[in-house]
Amino acid sequence: MNKPKVAFICVHNSCRSQIAEALGRHLAPDVFESYSAGTEPGPQINQDAVRLMKQIYGIDMEKTQYSKLLSDIPPVDVVVTMGCNVRCPFLPCTERFDWGLEDPAGAGDEAFIETIREIHTKIVELAQHLAQ
User: Fold this and answer.
1) Sheet containing 33-38: which strands, arranged edge to edge?
2) What residues does the Phosphotyrosine protein phosphatase I domain cover (predicted)?
3) Which residues share a beta bridge with 98?
4) Is the pTM of this model over 0.90?
5) Rounded to whole angstroms, how far apart are CA atoms 7 and 122?
6) Where are the domains positioned within the chain?
7) For 83, which of 15, 24, 100, 120 could close a Cys bridge (C-beta 3.0–4.6 Å)?
8) Residue 119: left if φ>0, alpha if ψ -120 to 50, beta else—which one?
9) Residues 30-79: tens digit of each pLDDT
10) CB-based contacts of 28: which residues, under 8 Å, 6+ apart?
11) What is the distance between the terminal CA atoms of the chain, rounded to a whole angstrom?
12) Contact 60, 51 (CB under 8 A)
């Protein structure tokens, strides 16, 4: 059976969606394939997110990830929006979730760490849901 493809979607695809893609690959690679993309990708992944993901998990997001447009990812089964405070574009899928996460950009390390912890918890919950 093919693993479902999950897309984590955000406007700039530079922070929350990138963290979710990395943690999906790290925590649930046997359950689903992780992708991330945005409607207006930034020039690079947020450097605070990169630094803290290296520090907490030993994951270097810049080695395998970059900011992408929605058209740069394959068709997906599940779409997870991060809580963009904008109407996210429609991507065909069988399931859709909105995690409603605040963007920690510019808010300091504590905000980033809290967001990373929230995403970690949600990735584990998503993996359990999809494994059923």
Assistant:
1) 33-38, 5-10, 78-81, 95-98
2) 4-129
3) 81
4) yes
5) 14
6) 5-131
7) 100
8) alpha
9) 999 999 999 888 899 999 999 999 999 999 999 999 999 999 999 999 99
10) 34, 123, 124, 126, 127, 130
11) 13
12) no
Gap between the Cα atoms of 127 and 132, Å rounded:
9
Does 11 have pLDDT greater than 90? Answer: no
The pLDDT value recorded for residue 73 is 96
CATH of domain 5-131: 3.40.50.2300
Q: What b-and-e string marks burial along 77-93, b requiring 16 or more CB atoms within 10 Å of the CB? A: bbbbbbebeeebeebeb
- Report residue 108 as tokens: 């300091």
State the chain's mean pLDDT as an integer: 93
Token code pair at residue 34: 């992780």
Contacts of 85 (CB under 8 A, 6+ apart): none
Report long-range pairs for 115-120 (Cβ below 8 Å, ≥24 apart).
115/15, 115/16, 115/19, 116/19, 116/23, 116/49, 116/52, 116/53, 116/56, 119/16, 119/19, 119/20, 119/23, 120/23, 120/27
